[in-house]
Design goal:
globular; 9 strands; single chain; 8 helices; two-stranded parallel sheet; Rossmann fold
Length: 280
């Protein structure tokens, strides 16, 4: 059993919090009196989010950071522990996507590596750099990792991204069990955003162009043959995600969804697993 999270006076680190979902989370934590360190590849956006928290009476710092650079993430952890004395909440949220969608057979190994470096190793780097020192602290701790509702359903054309996010799910579920197994006062939550209107498509294209010179919009777009609609593709703004995340921390929910779960698909998938064992 984990103890209560006392947000007022706690300290948090949120990656990718210069914009969109992460920014909403950082603002909500700041509003509750949590001291927030905001890290983002876009240093100006990170500084803007920190200023917004400070202007509202909260405490925040910002730092330009690339989550794929382990040494930089380790130095982010050093800064957080030396500034705040402890880190109660770590949210590994930074991520990139792929627009337009692309079939697996039209992707390159470099595409898979890029997507995995940011969306999976960005999370791994955060966990590895912060977890040992967080485990040494007394009191409640929480790690949150941002996945996607793409892993709770099927999105043809989004295989690169979905595969990396499934890796986040696997890491998070296992880490949660290990911490329970060892009696730690430490929760792990996976955030599953559905369709949230942020600038992620354009931002990801800009980031890739800056890093490699490649223009993602020039690739062969996936042609959707069968019609597939999910309730989680109903667009919402990022505004309430911070509140949803705080609720999930309060209840130590393993999963935090921004949209309803695709229950029929999930049940049908479970049935396929059950049927998949043919004996012998
Ligand atoms: N918006 C959606 O519909 C949606 C759906 C499912 C999952 N997600 C996930 O939610 C998270 C946040 O997405 P968002 O929609 O708020 O996107 P966003 O682009 O608005 O914000 C993401 C932030 O991450 C930063 N970032 C990108 N690469 C980085 C790196 N290497 N190091 C540090 N920072 C980096 C960007 O600069 C940006 O500020 C991502 O992990 C994304 O995959 C979003």
């Amino acid at each position: 059993m984990v103890t209560e999270m006392k947000f007022d006076g706690a300290s948090a680190v949120v990656t990718g919090a210069g914009n969109g979902i992460g920014r909403s989370i950082a603002l909500e934590l700041g509003r509750l009196g949590t001291r927030v360190l905001i890290a983002d590849l876009d240093g100006d956006a990170a500084a803007g989010a920190a200023e917004e928290i400070s202007a509202a009476g909260g405490t925040a710092r910002s730092r330009k950071l690339d989550v794929t650079d382990y040494a930089a993430v380790e130095s982010l952890a050093d800064e957080a522990f030396s500034e705040f004395g402890r880190v109660d909440i770590l949210h590994n949220n930074a991520g990139v996507t792929w627009r337009p969608f692309r079939a697996v057979w039209n992707a390159t190994l470099a595409d898979f590596r890029w997507m995995t470096e940011v969306n999976y190793f960005g999370v791994v780097n955060g966990v590895m750099a912060f977890l040992p020192r967080m485990r040494e602290q007394e009191g409640r701790k929480q790690i949150l990792n941002t996945s996607s509702m793409a892993t709770t359903s099927l999105t043809p054309g989004h295989g690169l991204y979905t595969a990396a996010k499934h890796a986040v799910d696997g890491l998070s579920d296992t880490l949660r069990e290990e911490l329970i197994d060892h009696g730690d006062d430490f929760g792990v939550t996976v955030l599953y955003p559905g369709q949230i209107t942020t600038g992620i498509g354009e931002r990801s294209r800009d980031i890739r162009k800056l890093e490699t010179g490649e223009d993602l919009s020039q690739g062969i777009a996936y042609v959707q043959v069968r019609d597939a609609k999910w309730a989680h593709n109903e667009p919402k703004t990022a505004e309430n995600v911070g509140k949803q995340v705080v609720e999930a921390i309060v209840h130590n929910d393993p999963y935090c969804l921004t949209h309803p779960a695709p229950i029929e698909y999930l049940e049908a998938r479970n049935q396929l697993w059950v049927q998949g064992y043919r004996g012998y």
